[in-house]
Each structure stands twice: as C-alpha cells, then as structure tokens.
Amino acid sequence: MLFLAVKMKAIVSHDIDHLSLSEHYLKDLIVPKFFVRSFIEFFSGLISFSELHYRFLDVFKNQWQHIEELHVFNKAHFVPTTYFIGVNNGIGLSYSRANAAIWIKKMKELGCDVGVHGIEFENFEKINAEYLMFKNLSGQAQFGTRMHYIRTNPNTFLNMSAAGYLFDSSEMGFTKPYRIGNMWEFPFQIMDGYIIEKPKQWQSKTFKQSCEETQRIIDKAFKGNLPYLGIDFHDRYFSDAHKTWKDWYMWLIEYLVSQDIPFVNFRQAINELEGSRSYVEIKINKP
Ligand SMILES: [Zn+2]
C-alpha cells in the first residue's frame, strides 16, 4: 500500500470577544478584572510600563478590537482568515447585535470569511435560533461557528449540524477534521490564551517560552500527520497593549511562512477534503 505524505496547511481564525470597553460598563466586571490582571502582570515583570500605559490609553479610545490592523498584517502574509463574531451576549461577550452587524458588513467588505462566535450550546432550539439570527444579519447562505470559551455538551455538534452550520471549530485536539452529517468539525491545536496564560488566568509565559511551547505543538501536529493546523488568535491582542501576544502571533505566522506551510481558510479546506473523499463521517438523524 502506498502512503503519500500529506503536506500540512494552516487555518487561522479569530474570535471577537470585545469591540469596546463601554459595552461592559453596567453589564459585567470584565474591565475592573482586566486592570487587576494587568497590575499582576506588571508587578510580576511580565509586561512593561509602556504596555500598561497603552492599556490605560485604550480606556480613553474605548477600543478593544483590532480587526483592521490584524487584517493588514494577515493580508501582507497571504493569510486568508475567518472571524467569529457574537450575535448573543454571555460570559463576558457584551457587545450589541447592532454593532456586530456593522462589523459583519465591514469584514465581508475586507474579503474575510465571517461566522458565529456562539453563545448557545445547550439544545437544538437555542443553537438553531442563534444560527438563524446570524443568517439574517449576515445575509450568508452558509457559514461556520466556534463557541465562545469552546463550550459544548455531548449533543452540541449534532445540533449545530442539524441547524445547518457548514463547519465548526470548537474542539481542541490532535484529530483530523471529520464530518458530522453535513457539518465539518475542524479540531484546532493552537489558542493564544492556552499558550500565554495557562495555567494562570493572566500572562504567565514570556515571549520565548510561548514560542517554544508553540513549536512543540506544531511538531506534534506534524508527527500526527494532521492535514490542517488550527490556530485561534483573538484580534483584541493584536495591540501594543499586549506586546507578548502580538509579537507571538507575528512570530507564529512568520515561522509558518519560513517552514513553507501554506494557509487556507475553512471553506478551502472543505473543498480539498471533499475532493479527496477520504474522511470519517458520522451520520445523524435530524431532530
Ligand atoms: Zn470567545
């Protein structure tokens, strides 16, 4: 039997957890908690005075998204990206649906793919309502999703598939993409927060340690013959207020370019996978 080595490609996506600071006032405690975290990071020597200064400046700018700057960087490196944006509120995601609609339109104009940053994971009715809400707002016939905080239960993927999602990327792990009904699940391996913060809830690694950890993950994906390396980076951190995060992301993209790893988005990967016809499929019955 002939085994052909599969050349790994990278899929980059971005979760939009925040647009402004003011959307959190009176709704949640994200902003005060963020400044407590920032002081811990500053006094631990993990962030500089300049980063802390930029974090305070953001209060006056009222900006916690960096979608356009990130897009310029991605475009210059030929990285086709997918943004996941919320149309419901929950666990610290507090921007309005009206503001989400403005950004969906802008991201489509920039030529990016846009899907749902899902809040509803518990049952079919809620997942389906969120799917239809995004469908109406975005005017797209087909799109994907990733759950905020990658929350799922044993039926979430089945219900997403039944709602009509084209793809999901909420599973973390070293597994090849697989199909559940008509939906593709793309497990991903690299998430900014898991690398830079874990095991703490604030930055616990230096830039060098973060890069070393990332290289280990990429090597593991290579050894596991994964056809796609999944990367989740939050646009919020593409900022001088989060220098380690921004430098790490730029290093990661440039490292993948130097390793000759091409970038595709989820839709391109689906076309490749369906063309190859060698995938695992889990059949489902509609609820
Ligand atoms: Zn999120």
What is the fold's blueprint, element by element?
Elements: E1 9-16, H1 30-43, H2 49-61, H3 67-76, E2 81-85, H4 97-109, E3 113-118, H5 124-138, E4 144-147, H6 156-163, E5 167-168, E6 178-180, E7 183-185, E8 190-191, H7 192-196, H8 207-223, E9 228-232, H9 243-258, H10 266-276, E10 281-282
Parallel strand pairs: 1-2, 1-9, 2-3, 3-4, 4-5, 5-7, 6-10, 8-9
Antiparallel strand pairs: 6-7
Helix pairs in contact: 5-6, 8-9
The structure holds zinc ion.
Zinc ion binds next to loops.
What would you note in describing this structure?
This protein has 287 residues and is an alpha/beta fold. It has a single domain (9-282), classed as TIM Barrel. Helices cover 43% and strands 14% of the residues. It is built from 10 helices and 10 strands. The chain has a 10-stranded mixed sheet with strand order 8-9-1-2-3-4-5-7-6-10, with helices on both faces. α5 packs across α6 (156-163) and α8 (207-223) packs parallel to α9 (243-258). The radius of gyration is 19 Å and the shape is globular. The N and C termini lie far apart (41 Å). The relative contact order is 0.17. The mean pLDDT is 93. It binds zinc ion. Zinc ion binds at residues 15, 17, 117, 148-149.
Major beta-sheet overview? 10 strands, mixed
Percent in helix = 40-55%
Write down the overall geometry. globular
- What count of structural domains? 1
- The third-level CATH topology is TIM Barrel
Query: For the residues shown, what is the average pLDDT?
Result: 93
Hey, roughly how much beta strand do the residues contain? Answer: 5-15%
Q: What structural category characterises the helix and strand content? A: alpha/beta
Would you report the number of β strands?
A: 10
Question: What radius of gyration results from the CA coordinates?
Answer: 19 Å
Order of helices and strands: EHHHEHEHEHEEEEHHEHHE
